Amino acid sequence: MIRAALAFCLVSIAVCQEGNIVQVAQKLGATTLLELATEAGLAPTLSTGGPFTVFAPTNDAFAKLPKRIVNELKKNKELLVAVLKYHVLSGKTYSSQLKNELVVPTLDPTLNCRINIYQNGKVVTADGSPVVMADQNATNGVIHVINRVEFPIPFMDVVKTAQRQSELGTLVKAVVAAGLVDTLSGPGPFTVFAPTDKAFAALPPGTLDNLLKNKTALTDVLTYHVVSGTYFSAGLTSGAVPTVEGKSVNIQVGQGVKVNNANVVVADEAVTNGVIHIIDAVLIPPKYNSNGSGYRFHP
Fold it and tell me: Which of helix, strand or coil describes residue 134?
């Protein structure tokens, strides 16, 4: 079942509000967003321009940011403007117009936002941030309230993003050895559960070396970590999920998220062709298990 705290039902009828985007945001209590928009010089545009679609983080969302990031946003106006523009789309887009895997341009011309809809429309995310209140109508646009601040990180595909992560060096080496670079750099979209270097090092002695010598087995193991589609943490539910390898992994959602025996230690690394969740153990397809005595991969 979807976590109740994240669940909300899409409505096709906009909630009527009086006023422009700034005035409606004020009524919704998004005061931190408005303070930052004023400091960035964007408040007049949001008041008189448009129409716009705004994904508006709550005050709690800003409060959860590390203090150093908030201070940097207040000191660096260029960065602040970029972050705020990343939450704004041109035009008026209601929830009924949103589709799964929809990629939409933001007011930052260099970046797009990926919309995902999970569980028959009950959870919607904008680049992984769940929408908690949809379709707040304004005279010059519409507001969707979200519970996390998004940052305009220069997105890259699965492989290029993994290459920039120091803890994923072994995974990148394995992807190259298996000949999967072009696939995982392709359009996807993919959800990748990415084991850390420590996870690979914890495999039984000789396992990794034998995998690297056996392209078929290596490909089976790596594709067992990949699910078709984009599933941010808000869209993960407990149960079996089919992988592109052909077998399913078991997702357990509780205080954190587990995938089989692995814990998700870093969630929601957005990439241009999906999302990466970093995990602390390597997932082994069932056909390679050997009665608890280790894993047998032969070169």
Answer: strand
